[in-house]
Amino acid sequence: MAERYYHPSEIESKWQKNWRDAGIDTTERDPGREKFYCLEMFPYPSGKIHMGHIRNYVIGDVITRYKKMNGFNVLHPMGWDAFGLPAENAAINNGIHPSIWTEENIVSMKAQIEKIGASYDWARELATCRPEYYRWNQWFFIKMYERGLAYKKNSLVNWCQSCATVLANEQVIDGKCWRCDGDVVQKELEQWFFRITAYAEELLAGCDTLAGWPDHVVAMQKNWIGKSYGAEVDFQVAGSGDVAGGVPGPGSTIRIFTTRPDTLFGVTFMCLSPLHPLAASLCENAAELEMVKNAYGKADEKVGVFTGKYAINPVNGESIPIYVANFVLMQYGTGAIMSVPAHDQRDFEFARKYGLPVRRVIIPDGGVVSAELQSAYEEDGTLADSGQFTGRHNRDAIKSIIGYLKEKGKGEEVVNFKLRDWGISRQRYWGTPIPIVYCRNCGVVPVPETRLPVILPPDVKLTGKGGSPLAEAESFVNTDCPKCGAPARRETDTMDTFVDSSWYFVRFCGKSGEPPLDGDNIKYFMPVDQYIGGVEHAVLHLLYSRFFTRAMRDLGIVGFDEPFTRLLTQGMVCKETWKCDEHGWIFPEEVKDGKCIHCGRDALRGRVEKMSKSKKNVVAPDDIITKYGADTVRVFALFAAPPEKDMEWSDQGVEGASRFLNRLWTLVHNIIGKRNPINPIHGERVKCFEAEAKMPGVSYGNLFRKTHQTIRKVTTAIEKDYHFNTAIAALMELLNDMYSFESSVDKGDAAMFYAASKMVLLLSPFAPHICEELWRELKMGSNGSIFLEPWPELDESAAKEEELELVVQVDGKVRGKQMIPAGLPEEAVKSAALENEKVRDHLAGKTVKNVMVVRGKLVSIVTEKR
RNA sequence: GCCGGUGUGGUGGAAUAGGCAGACGCGACGGACUCAAAAUCCGUUGAGGGCGACCUCGUGGGGGUUCGACUCCCCCCACCGGCACCA
C-alpha cells in the first residue's frame, strides 16, 4: 500500500457527505433518553461567514459531539435571523428584492457553515423571514395585545436620520445608531410597545437564579433593569393652593421622585424636565423654555431657566424657586426633581451656575465641617437643620421621613426601574408586519388568528426615504375590518427583529414541518442547556428572550421561567494590525521588510484588534479552510485561548495546529503499518492487557498510565469550564509521549495502539474528520462512526502514578526533590525528606521546629528562627 | 463617576482546595537529514551570577495573613468592557 499523506480536503468532504447521508446528526424526541440542548446564537445571513461565527459554532459543536458521546440525546439546530436592514439596503442600492437577496445568502452561508463540519440537525432549519415563521411573531403579538402586554402610545422615540427609522434605547450607543453610527434625534411618533416593565420585578429576581451565566452578564442585566428604592413627594406650587378648603387645583402640584428623602430639608430649588407637562404652563418665557428644550439630553452642559414660580417644600413649608432644566429626564421617575445642591453633585453644579443657595443637612460622622463645599457631599452622616429628624443618622431617618410624608398625604414610598417598555415599531419593510387593522367604526382591531399570517407584500418600492415602505403599498394597506367588514387600513409598521430572536429557540424543538409550539417537543427539549454567543447580546437579546419566555409561560406554552440554563459568551477573534503614517491601516501583504510597499515609510505594528474590514486584519475562513482544512482551523480556534476570552489569530499558530494533526496522522499510520496481532481493544485480550499494563514496573506501563491521565485531563477540562485549550494541550502531551515511546516488547506495540485509539476518541469532538478517518483505519469499534462510540472511560487505578516526586522545602524554599513510591505512610515520607542529602545540608546548624506533610506533594520543614 | 473584568517569559497561554511558577503551542538559537533549501526529526530557551554541583531574583506596584501566596485580605497603578445627568 502506498504511503498515505494527510489531505484534509479529501477526507473532510468525504466524511461530511457520509455523515449527511447516514443522518447521524438528526435528533428525535426520545423521552427514554436524557436530552441536552446546545444552541449557538443564529446568524444574520449577510452572505459571508466570519471568524467570529466559526469560533462560536466550533465551540458549540465540540460540546454537542462530546455530549453525544456521553450518551445524551443532543439537540443542535441552526437557522437564520433573516429579517433586517442589510437586505433592505441591498434592495435600495442594487434593486435586488430582500427576499431573494436573503435566500441566496442563506444558501451560500449554509455551504460555508457545513464546511467546518458542524453537526447540525438541518431538519429544524428556520429563517425568520419566511411566513411560516413570522406568522407566529404575529400570533404572539395578538396574544400580548389581548393581555395588555402590547399597546400603542404616542411617544418620543429615538429616530435615526440615515436609517429613517425608530431605534430602541438599547440600539442607541453614545447618541449614535448602533448599526450605521448616524446621528439619533428625538421625534414624536405613535409606536407599538411590549410591556416588558410588567415583568421588571420578576426579571430582576430571576437574575439570581442564573447560576450558569457569567457574572458580568447577570450584572449587566440587573444594571439595565435598574431597580431603585425611594419616594415620590408632592410639592405644591405656591399660590395655587390658596383656594377654599386648601385643596390644590389641577396642575398645581408637582410630584417628584427621589432616592434621598433624607435630604428633603436641604432642598433649595426644584427642576422640571423641559418635556414635563407643566413646564409650558409654569414657564413665563416660552423662548427660554425652547432653549432648554433644545439642550435636552446634552450631557456636556447644564442649562436651566427660572419659571418665575415657587413651590412649597412639604416638610418645612419653605418657598423654593421652580426651574426647568435640561438634565432632568422625562422618562425616569416623574420628570421632576427636588434639588439638594449640598448632597447631589448635579444639583450642586446647577446651583453654582445659577447662583442658588446650598444648604447642608448631612454632617459627616466625626468629620470636620469645612467652610464651603467644593463638591456635593453624597455620603452618609448625621442630619442637621432637619426639623424633628435633626441628630438622627440619615439612613435610619429615611423610613421615618417617608412615614411622615405619608401621614400628611404628601408622599409615599416608591420603587423605580430604569427599564422601559420595549418599543417594537419599525418604519421598515423587511420585518414582520404588525397584525393590526384600523377601522373607522371599530378602531384598533387585531387580525384574527385564523387570518394569519399577514403576508409581507412582495411588490413594494424601496427607496430608503420617508416612513414605512408598506404605507405606499395600496393593496396591502387597504383591507376590510375583520370585525365589521367595513373598509379599513392596515398597520404599516413592522416589528423590531429582536422579536424574531426572542423565541426561535422554542421553534427549534420541532422539525420544520411540525407545529412550532408543540407541547411535547417543548417539554422534552427546553430549556436550552447551553447557549453560546457573543457578549454584545448581554442585555438586548437575552433580556427580551427572558421576557418572552415569561410571557410564553403565562400563555401556557412553556413551564419554566428561564430559557437558557447555561450561557457562554465567547470572546472576540482578534488579530494584529498594521499602520503606515501615509496610508493608515494597511493589509499585512502591504508590509515588506517593515516598510509600507506604497510609500516606503515604516510600517508600524498596531494593536491587536477585533477583526474588521476597516482595520484590514480580517482572515477569511474559506481561504484558511481551503489551505489547512477545517480540523486545523477548529483545533487552532480552540487552542489559542479559552472560549470566553478574546483570542488572537496567528498564522503561525495555525501552522502549529496543522503540524499537530499531521504528526498524529503520521504516527497512527506508522502504528497501523507494523500492526501487532494483539489487538488490545477487543474482548478478553483487552482485560488481559489492561491488567498487565497496570502492574508495577511494566515497561509500557508509563504510556498506559499517560493515556488514562489524558482521559482524565481532557474530560475534566471539558466538564469543568469548557477550557478546550488545556484539553488539546493534554492531547499534544500524549502525542509527544507516544513519539518518544520506544518499545522492546510486543505488548509495547499494543500499548501504542491502545493510546492511539483513545487519543483519536478524545480528539474527535475537536477535529472530527481526521479522527473519523483514523478511527476507521484503525478498524476500531463496531458501530461504524466514531461519533456513535462512547466517550473513553477513566480508570482511576490506571491513571495513578507508581511513584511521585517529593518536593522538600526548608523555610519555604525548595531545597530537595526525590522520587518516592506512591502511597507511603506519612511518617515514612517525613523521614525520607529529612534524610535527603541536600535537605540535610540546609538543615545543618539549625533546629527543626516543625515538619508538615502535604499528601502526595511535598514536605515543608520549618527551622527555629533566632 | 458607578458596575464588571484583566494584568504571568520574546509571544498566545498553563498552574485541583494556598503547595515545584511558566504545561502545551508559537518564535528564537543549536544540531541531524539534504548538493542546497523547504519540510521533518532531536536538543536548548524567565532574568542575573558561578568553571561547577548550585545560588539569588521573578506572576502590574506597595503592604499584610501563612511554614508556604499567581492564588486569600487591604491600598494603589494600568488597560479592556458595560452603564452613564436614572435624581
Structure in words:
The chain has 866 residues and is of the alpha+beta class. The chain folds into 6 domains: 31-128 and 501-570, Rossmann fold (3-Layer(aba) Sandwich); 137-195 and 421-495, no CATH class; 227-417, Isoleucyl-tRNA Synthetase, domain 2 (Alpha-Beta Complex); 573-610; 648-799, Isoleucyl-tRNA Synthetase, Domain 1; 803-863, Ubiquitin-like (UB roll) (Roll). The chain is built from 26 helices and 35 strands. The strands form 10 sheets. Strands 8, 9, 10, 11, 12, 13 and 16 form a 7-stranded mixed beta sheet that branches. Strands 2-1-24-25 form a 4-stranded parallel beta sheet, covered by helices on one side. Strands 4-3-7-17 form a 4-stranded antiparallel beta sheet. β32 and β33 form a beta hairpin. α3 (85-94) crosses α4, α18 crosses α21 (724-740) and α20 runs parallel beside α22. It is globular. Mean pLDDT is 88; it is low at 242-247. The protein binds one RNA strand of 87 nucleotides through α7, β9, β13, α10 and β31.
Oligomeric category: single chain
CATH fold naming of the largest domain = Isoleucyl-tRNA Synthetase, domain 2
Largest sheet: 7 strands, mixed
Approximate helicity band? 25-40%
**Number of helices in the DSSP assignment:** 26
Count the E strands.
35
What does the overall shape look like? globular
CATH superfamily of the largest domain: Valyl/Leucyl/Isoleucyl-tRNA synthetase, editing domain
Q: Could you tell me the radius of gyration in angstroms?
A: 35 Å
